[in-house]
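Hi there, hope your week has been kind to you so far. Do you reckon you could talk me through the fold, stretch by stretch? I've dropped the whole record in just underneath, so have a look:
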Amino acid sequence: MSTQSSVVTSATELRAYAPTADLTVSPPPSRIERARPRTGTSPDNLRTEPGPVRFIIISLAVTFLSVFVVLPLVVVFASAFSKGIGAYLVALAEPEALSAIKLTLLVAAISVTLNLVFGVIAAWAIAKFDFTGKTFLITLIDLPFSVSPVISGLVFVLLFGAQGFFGTWLQAHDIHILFAVPGIALATIFVTFPFVARALIPLMQEQGTQEEEAAISLGASGLQTFFRVTLPNIKWGLLYGVLLCNARAMGEFGAVSVVSGHIRGETNTMPLLVEILYNEYQFVASFAIASLLAMLALITLVVKTVLERRLDEGQEPRDH
């Protein structure tokens, strides 16, 4: 009772000296409010660098991109059309160039198709199930990112070469892996198989398994659940992975160079033909083929930007 009366007396005396004072007890400041600066500046002002600093950073970025990205593209197209569009079209119409283009498209189609199937299965297993060896499987998927393409090509030589592990058996059955389309396709598949899986794994992990479980509880089969629930949810991520896989497959040089044998008109892909023509001082023909790869890179960049935007739009409802 004495404590309560003293509190009341103190409050009464305070009102007498400050009749307009607000005696409402405020809650303690939150962690964000305590961390907020007391100078009256907004968070946007804190992230704004001084004008000279911004100018220097932007200038460095623009200069770097101009020297290492824009300038090489300009040189490629300028050299390709240096003798006119007629010479450009003639260079692309050469039998050797047509053979390289066809082989590149064939190998890309094979590798993208197989990596599409593998990537979806691997992403499905990693994102939707818990099993022994899951971490090891993820490590294997990332392996081509850490191994040089030339080393991967040498591995196939050690496996399928004349003196390789399967070499004697392949020769006895007249089966050609190296210096032929199968070897080029195998090398390309190895260096490109992480792209589809790596594009799908984080997306499928974020989506969880609630929708699939609901579909199965309503009587849907596994295939129906995949095609009607899972696939529509991952379609943009799947296209994104396929796009990157295709771009890498068509531009692969190191691994393909080891296993192709450089047989003119038979096992040279577009990147290999560019090097051969350039070493032979056929600059217009070399840059003509290179311009096709450059156009592929530009198209890939544009489509990649569109797909990234669609992916962000598809994830916004889940974020909110």
Remarks:
- The chain has a mean pLDDT of 83.
- The chain is about 75% helix and 0% strand.
- The two ends are 52 Å apart (CA to CA).
- Residues 283-319 form the longest helix (37 residues).
